[in-house]
């Protein structure tokens, strides 16, 4: 999204709030942009930064062509500072470095902007240091914070920001974007269930690793019903070597969750909601005979629990072994 009119197509309320403040020259000293991944947080943050620095702005729209806009796009603007989590969190030292940078005047203007991605990962010390910035705002300093988890932002920070709530993307609109990009209808349905980020969806669709992931997921589910004695061997010899890091392991669990939901949807006559399997897939009929509705609901709860354990850094092999035992009960 390069313009506010494009933002308005996806996030009309957010676009209206911000562009109204630009027109009235009442841009807030701090924004907290909150929404799910892929809803446009970074695009909105970049646009807002361009509005503040652009030298040839037309009404609310930055020109995209001036030196300021181009340097923001390339990540080389000296007065725009980006902070992202270092590992699992944003640390006190990162904020200390930012504070030091802000003791100097702007290199090319008096305007300074800092963008914090994953603001919910600020450690307690880092959050307290950011709070000092927000409590003593400079007229020429703008904070843009972004989060997927607004509940983790401390209330004292929230109260000093203009909160911009982004709405979840409309699944049908997103699927249309994927179809327009050349993706097949079946794949567009699956990719829109896996992510609401267009670039990620296109990348997954062409990824051989993900294609193999889908095959392993189907093999594992069929194995539960046909060859239960071989499941543990399959987990150790095929599943874990393929799903290596935490992101991949979470995607593996997401695929399993979508597939088990499909079986449940077939059970209750909601075939139109199926994502992984086609409604005329013979595999589904066999799986419906094996997994009862009650069992499927229990499995979906265990999959959610497994995802929570992964986020808590429980050993992934142990997580899959426990999940396997729970599914086989």
UniProtKB/TrEMBL annotation:
Keyword check for Nucleotidyltransferase: yes
DNA polymerase III delta subunit C-terminal domain mapped to chain residues: 242-327
MF term (GO), any: DNA binding
InterPro entries, alphabetized: DNA_pol_HolB (IPR004622), DNA_pol_III_delta_C (IPR015199), DNA_Rep/Repair_Clamp_Loader (IPR050238), P-loop_NTPase (IPR027417)
Transmembrane residue ranges: none
NCBIfam families (UniProt xref): holB, PRK08058.1
Name of the protein this chain belongs to: DNA polymerase III subunit delta'
Keyword terms: DNA replication, DNA-directed DNA polymerase, Nucleotidyltransferase, Transferase
Catalytic activity reported: DNA(n) + a 2'-deoxyribonucleoside 5'-triphosphate = DNA(n+1) + diphosphate
Cross-referenced PANTHER family: DNA POLYMERASE III SUBUNIT DELTA (PTHR11669:SF8), REPLICATION FACTOR C / DNA POLYMERASE III GAMMA-TAU SUBUNIT (PTHR11669)
GO biological process terms on file: DNA-templated DNA replication
GO cellular component: DNA polymerase III complex
Recorded superkingdom: Bacteria
Pfam families listed in its UniProt record: DNA_pol3_delta2, DNApol3-delta_C
Enzyme class: transferase
E.C. numbers: 2.7.7.7
SUPFAM superfamilies for this protein: P-loop containing nucleoside triphosphate hydrolases
């Amino acid at each position: 999204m390069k313009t506010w009119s494009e933002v308005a197509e996806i996030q009309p309320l957010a676009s209206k709030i911000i562009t109204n403040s630009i027109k009235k020259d009442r841009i807030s000293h701090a924004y907290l942009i909150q929404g799910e991944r892929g809803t446009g947080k970074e695009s909105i943050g970049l646009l807002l930064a361009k509005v503040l620095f652009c030298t040839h702005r037309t009404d609310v729209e930055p020109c995209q062509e001036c030196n300021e806009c181009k340097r923001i796009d390339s990540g080389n603007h000296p007065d725009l500072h980006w902070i992202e989590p270092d590992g699992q969190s944003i640390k006190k030292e990162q904020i200390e470095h930012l504070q030091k940078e802000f003791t100097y005047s702007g290199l090319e203007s008096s305007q300074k902007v800092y963008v914090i991605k994953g603001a919910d990962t600020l450690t307690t010390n880092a959050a307290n240091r950011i709070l000092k910035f927000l409590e003593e705002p400079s007229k020429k300093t703008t904070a843009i914070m972004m989060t997927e988890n607004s509940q983790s932002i401390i209330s004292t920070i929230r109260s000093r920001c203009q909160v911009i709530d982004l709405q979840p993307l409309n699944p049908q609109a997103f699927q249309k974007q994927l179809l327009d990009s050349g993706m097949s209808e079946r794949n567009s349905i699956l990719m829109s269930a896996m992510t609401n980020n267009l670039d990620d969806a296109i990348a997954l669709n062409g990824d051989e690793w993900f294609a193999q992931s889908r095959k392993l997921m189907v093999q594992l589910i069929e194995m539960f019903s046909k060859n239960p004695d071989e499941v543990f061997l399959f987990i150790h010899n095929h599943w874990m070597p393929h799903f290596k890091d935490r992101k991949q392991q979470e995607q593996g669990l997401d695929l399993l969750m979508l597939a088990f939901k499909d079986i449940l949807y077939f059970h209750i006559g909601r075939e139109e909601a199926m994502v992984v399997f086609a409604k005329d897939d013979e595999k589904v009929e066999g799986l419906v005979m094996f997994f009862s509705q009650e069992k499927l609901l229990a499995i979906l709860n265990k999959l959610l629990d497994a995802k929570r354990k992964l986020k808590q850094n429980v050993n992934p092999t142990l997580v899959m072994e426990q999940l396997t035992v729970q599914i086989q009960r």
